[in-house]
Amino acid sequence: MHKVQNNRAWWLILPMLLLVAFSAIIPLMTVVNYSVQDVFDANTRYFTGTEWFREMLNDPDLHAAVLRQFAFSLTVLAIEVPLGIGIALLMPKKGWQASAVLILVTMPLLIPWNVVGSIWQIFTRGDIGLMGWSLRELGYEYNITASPVDAWLTIVLMDVWHWTPLIALLCYSGLRSIPDAYYQAARIDRASRWAVFRFIQLPKLTNVLVIGILLRFMHSFMIYAEPFVLTGGGPGSSTTFLSQSLTTMAIGQQDLGPSAAFSLIYFLIILLVSWVFYTAIMNMQKDNKKQGEA
């Protein structure tokens, strides 16, 4: 017997969908409008076509910023995803210990982004900061204002501290949703700890990992407040990421046309890479499911 689905509930969320679509489309169309014009003042504008896009695509500073951005995003993903899975596997499953650990793990996520930069700015100072003072005492000349390597590694460490809990919480929720029957079958078959992780836990974490990786990639690719507060983009341009370059161009230099073209290119890069990540992970999930059925 064919069951008729009642889709009337969609009418309840239709006003919100229209509101979100309207609030997203209007700014996007404004950016598109600026990207094909040369704006001199409120009444003087000239159509430029794709000139700003060609200029941005041939800009060596933009190329360098894109490389820095990809290097940073891939680095933090390579650290935070395995680390988050490991933390989730070690977290208690029940009792007051589980509640206490969840609170401790969640705390970094509650701190605003600009405050995170301020905290780490103090933390890394050589005179009063615990990290900076400790490294100085150990004989390492740690200075994020003079050494690009120190600044880069500090921003990576700051991001790992701030956002690994998100991956850990998502993985923890995924692990808690696995039925006990799977673990009972694994114990009967005398499966090793690695086999349980490889064939039970990791496949069941695929969906939450897709969400976590996409969220972390998009945020890391748009990171602005933390490195701006901590290093200001320096030393030189070693920690100047795409968002800061865009802000400088749009607000500092008032180049509305080039910055609008820049922002559209920025958006398309994020959209394309997110789609690649999603497609690759879903294909891996399909392959694992076929191997399990075989």
From TrEMBL:
GO terms for biological process: transmembrane transport. The chain crosses the membrane at residues 12-36, 70-90, 102-123, 151-175, 196-218, 260-281. Its main location: membrane. It comes from the Bacteria. The keyword Ligase does not apply. It is found in: Cell membrane. It is a multi-pass membrane protein. Keywords: Membrane, Transmembrane, Transmembrane helix, Transport. It holds the Pfam family BPD_transp_1. PANTHER family: GLUCOSE IMPORT SYSTEM PERMEASE PROTEIN GLCT (PTHR43759:SF1), TREHALOSE TRANSPORT SYSTEM PERMEASE PROTEIN SUGA (PTHR43759). Belongs to the binding-protein-dependent transport system permease family. This is Glycerol transport system permease protein. It comes from Halomonas organivorans. The lineage of its organism: Bacteria, Pseudomonadati, Pseudomonadota, Gammaproteobacteria, Oceanospirillales.
